[in-house]
Design brief:
There is one protein chain. It is built from four helices and no strands. The N and C termini lie close together (11 Å). It is elongated. It has 113 residues and is mainly α. Helix 2 runs antiparallel to helix 3.
């Protein structure tokens, strides 16, 4: 494993965390605009994904000897988040972008786990 492999995965984690955090206010506005209750499980999944991606990003940047464990957990949460986004609105551009970021991060983390 090279430094560039670690760096690429760390960047994917960072991008995924950003996508998840950006989607939260979008989802809250969307539900409010439609007069629907907030999808609490979806918001929690987005927050979980952003958190594990941030943690994994840190493990990778530090070159932690435990990065594979963090990557395995990150891949699992990213897959769950992508599935949640896909179920809620692939026609919605921000939701689709988040799902794609989650899928890319999961694939990268799987290769590091």
């Amino acid at each position: 494993m090279t430094n560039s492999t670690l760096t690429n995965c760390a960047e994917m984690c960072h991008e995924c965390a950003d996508a998840c955090l950006a989607l939260i206010p979008h989802c809250l506005r969307h539900c409010a605009d439609q007069g629907r209750p907030v999808e609490t499980e979806h918001i929690n999944t987005l927050m979980d994904c952003a958190e594990i991606c941030s943690t994994t990003h840190n493990f990778l940047h530090r070159g932690s000897s435990h990065h594979a464990l963090a990557c395995a957990a990150c891949a699992a949460v990213c897959e769950a988040c992508a599935k949640c986004c896909d179920e809620l609105g692939v026609e919605d551009k921000p939701t689709r972008a988040c799902a794609e970021a989650c899928k890319a991060c999961a694939a990268s983390c799987h290769s590091m786990a």
